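Listing 4. Sequential folding, example run.
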Amino acid sequence: MPMPMTRFKKLTAREWSILRMLAKGVIPALIAVKLAISVKTVSQHTQSIAKKLGVENRLLLKRMLVAINQQRDPL
């Protein structure tokens, strides 16, 4: 069952940036370098993303991202 898009609307611009990078498989340490923030801040944003999307933990968030990427139409 697809996730309602209204949940994604709750994300901040920074959370969207991090979510996009996570979806591409970028590790938190590299995300931190690219965004000039600490790894702990990336972790806190990731937890916030998971909470807003109703996902229990980061592993489930990663699985959700993989599923979303598999559903995309590669145009």
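-- end of first protein; second protein begins --
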Amino acid sequence: MMVNTDYLVPMTEANQNFSRVVRLVDENGMAVILKNNKPRYVIVDFDEYEEIAGIMQMRRQRIESTADRILAENMEAFLELAK
């Protein structure tokens, strides 16, 4: 994933100047906090988080639905293999 370096904030600076992190999120929609010089945490606006959470929930539901369909379509084969 490509991250704009303008969004990066070292952990120590985030601890000492959280208002800068909030300002970055307000201006750019996100901030990335570095831990040991590696991207570790992403701070996003709550509306963005809700959108991401909704997408993840839809993805989980789609995976579960697909798994249920595959099991139902192949139940006879699975029962035979279970013998």
